[in-house]
Amino acid sequence: MMLPRAGMETKSGMDGIAADICVIGGGSGGLSVAAGAAQMGARTVLIEKGLMGGDCLNFGCVPSKALLAAAHAAAGIGHAARLGVDAGPVAVDFERVCAHVRATIAAIAPHDSVARFEGLGVTVLQAAARFTGPDTVEAGGRTVRARRFVIATGSTPLVPQIPGLDGVPYMTNETIFDCPALPRHLLVIGGGPVGIELAQAFGRLGSRVTVLQGTTILPRDDAELVAVVRDRLLAEGMAIHEGARAATVAMDGEEIVVTTADGVRVAGSHLLVAAGRRPTVAGLDLERAGIAFSAGGIAVDRRLRTGNRRIFALGDVIGGYQFTHMAGYQAGIVLRNALFRWPARACDRAVPWATYTEPELAQVGLSEATARAQGREVRVLRATMADNDRARAEGRTEGLVKIVTDRRGRVLGAGIAAAHAGELIQPWILAVGRGLGIGAMAGMIAPYPTLGEAGRRAAGSFFTPTLYGRRTRWLVRLLQRLG
């Protein structure tokens, strides 16, 4: 039986919509599915209760990178002086910095707008969605019946249960960009990527910053690479308390005071809570659709199907790698399964991530510690940026490239702590994803002088013991005697 086009009324009443695919959530992953499905001819409904573009556009990647750009520019003035260029004292106009952040969001917003998606033929419902059965959803008084559903509701900031926290003013990544003035002393609970990026940004813009982290900062990254970032943050005047779990929070006059479990007391003017994220599942009535979930997110198989095979889920709401680029990748997997019945499976072997501090920190595949914990026999290859001519010319010699291979040279993982690490990691994503041998990377011709030569140098070091060893020297001498 043919279903009516999305937006047409069904026999069930004037408030019913029938579609081939219904996407719940207008963040990066959901928008990718909706745009792709509509352009490939599927009758598509998109439901979003909040801002189109989701966390990435409005509270995450876009505003944070715009803020970081301003912060890096401020720090760059001091760096210019080390190169012989004097630009005078740094003066930060925080109101104009915030205007730049807002303008960046506004410039990108049309691509994620209701108008654009309606122009693609998508029916957009701006309301909260809840399942009423295994193949029906209610949103804003409308009932949507679809052949396939995709849940892409993302995640929200995790606010830990710290005694006294609910009695003080605090910010998360969803509210910090609305801060009316530059904080005098910003306290940050959480030393993951979000907390560290924002800490360095505000520090460079003129705030005093203190970070409190229950473990080490950036705990998912290689410790040797994290040390490079930590050293820079400390050199810039940031106070970092690692192994410091926040035990209580209270007001002392106009100051916010955080006391750690071991008795350290830190007072500041503003508080940012950046303690992680939790999947957004509340209010969806997933039980009515037969969908299993937990505090860690919605359970899916490798095809990103839930327990209800007509319903898929992707992005932050399924836990795991909570990155915008991962949601985009998963959108392609869902489209192949939902529209073409192609049993595409998600693979997380070569998922990269980057932290956009200065220097940047980027990782893909297995770290040295993870590989050794798995009992693998590995070789670790390194090249420092101090040995890279381009880095020397630009006066940015801190950091290194670190490659992990198996004993035969297959690339298992790579990590970089250096300027532009998020760009430099990209060929290594291909190497890990395709299971390339280190020889392929060592044999690459890199333009001179570029920062990317550091990766090639690290790769070449795999062959150094053999190439310049005793056996090679013996062979060369023998061949020379033979003429």
From TrEMBL:
Disulphide bonds in the chain: 56-61
PROSITE patterns: PYRIDINE_REDOX_1 (PS00076)
Cofactor needs: FAD
GO MF entries: flavin adenine dinucleotide binding; NAD(P)H dehydrogenase (quinone) activity; oxidoreductase activity, acting on a sulfur group of donors, NAD(P) as acceptor
Cofactor note: Binds 1 FAD per subunit.
Domain named Pyridine nucleotide-disulphide oxidoreductase dimerisation: residues: 351-458
Domain FAD/NAD(P)-binding residue range list: 20-331
Keywords, ordered alphabetically: Disulfide bond, FAD, Flavoprotein, NAD, NADP, Nucleotide-binding, Oxidoreductase, Pyruvate, Redox-active center
Annotated residues for binding of FAD: 65, 153-155, 316
Family note: Belongs to the class-I pyridine nucleotide-disulfide oxidoreductase family.
Protein's name according to its UniProt entry: Pyruvate/2-oxoglutarate dehydrogenase complex dihydrolipoamide dehydrogenase (E3) component
